[in-house]
Amino acid sequence: MLEQWLKDLGLIGTGILIGGTVLGLFWKADEAFSEEFKKVVSNRLKRMDFERATAGWPGAFTRLFDRLFGKRHLSWHCFLRSCIASSISVLLLTLITLTFNQELFVMVMEFKELFIFFPLGAFVFNFLPDYVSLIETRYVLKWMSTHSSNWTLGALLLFDVFATFLIFWAFGLVGSSIFISASEGGLYILNVSEFLELVHFAIWPGGDVDGSMYAVFFYSTFITSIWAWLYASSEAAVRLAMRFRNGVRILQWALPIETKPFRSIGEVAALFVCVSYWVIAGIASLLQQTA
Prior knowledge:
mainly alpha
């Protein structure tokens, strides 16, 4: 019983930590922008015309994106910020992986090669693809800022996910071949079946240590895409609630939309992430107990 309580507390704490990290991306954003720009964002959140209101979010998100990573992509400042964001996402995803599979922690501790592989793997499979993915997301956001159709914006978001997938596996194919060649003492290039098996490991690792490491690096590459999806969906949720009288009253009481619109969006995004994680973790825990 005590073990189950500790596990449940760990799941609750992990959800709060993830939500807090998401909120942290938005918390100080309002201090970085002028009152005029915040007024524009605030007015869009309160706009009842849903179709017109959704058209403007890419421009606001692009400015938030630039404030975090800088406007000059080819700079050490941007690369360092990208590496920090990648490291945080890897730590969170590792924590999530371990909370879903506690036995994996013991396996990781016994997997001594991990401590040699992880630093090199982080650079090849995490820092570099995340940085390239970052510039790809910048261009997608620039394209999105010139379009007003929700269908076009949705298509570009899906394109961003697909492009990020290709970027990771371009580095993954080369990096895996290099690591295997180094361990085998000769040139080795993955064949198609081995590559597809690696993709399967990354998407659905199960309890395998190698697969779990690939999965952590793989999903962390989507951090900027996930951030964009969270921003868009959270903005949409606020505007949708504003269309109802009771929703207006609740939001006016709970969120500082007038003075801190970005923090308001962040609070909704954090709540969404927390609840989603707790629901998925709860279902996974029940399935493990009944198995």
